[in-house]
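Chapter summary example.
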Amino acid sequence: MNVGLTHEYDVQRLRSISVRVAEEAAELAEKMRNEVVAEGVVDTKSTETDVVTAADRAVERLIRDRLAELRPGDPVLGEEGGGAVDQEGLRWVVDPIDGTVNYLYGHPDYAVSIAAQFNGASLAGAVVEPRSGRVWSAADGRGADLDGRPLEVSTARRFDLSLIGTGFSYLPERRGRQAALLTELLSEIRDIRRGGAASLALCAVAAGWTDGYYEHGLSRWDWAAGSLIAAEAGARTRLPAAGSADGLGDEAILCATPGIADELTRALLERNAAAI
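The structure predicted for these 276 residues follows.
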């Protein structure tokens, strides 16, 4: 739950809009997938491995158009189209296809992520998986659910028996540092999971499918909806923040069931996570 927010918005209404638009966007993404995979035509962003497809752009256009109809005048920040950088007030934060590399290869683990934020903190959001049809959603102070079923994080208390999710940067130098940290961390935990879509990794913590998750270098659209879903399911979340003094680094996100959150934080700090 976000603390200290002062707003006049109906968070359940915002949640409903997030779900409705994300479901429409997911349908378009899945419809275009075979064409994208068959043609294999993509552009790149930060590196040659960081791809964007015509579907990413088409899905974001649909989301922007639908939000303009349902919430006229609300600013939107999207991965492909940019937009509202000012965090003051209400804005929508959109990742049209989270897990584009998975999408390009025909792998099912990708999602549409939409969140409504107020002053930079998430009020409501939805993550929809086009292939499975699963719908994850949450509203500030109202809990989180998967296809209408309430979500709750795992009851894990032993770090050495925990299953931890993570992800990797598209920048080779950072990826190498992330791999080195992970190599050491593996000796302390049960195992690691890396699915390739941050929104779904956060939702996995919310469902108790993993016990924790961490990553460095995510953008706001990667975590805006998923982090709220995890928090509303009972996870302790630490979001990227400029000037952070906790030793994890400005670009770190950490999300875990309370029973192992301190141990995961300790393990990252001991391995100089801020230098990632």
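To summarize the output: DSSP finds seven helices and 15 strands in the chain.
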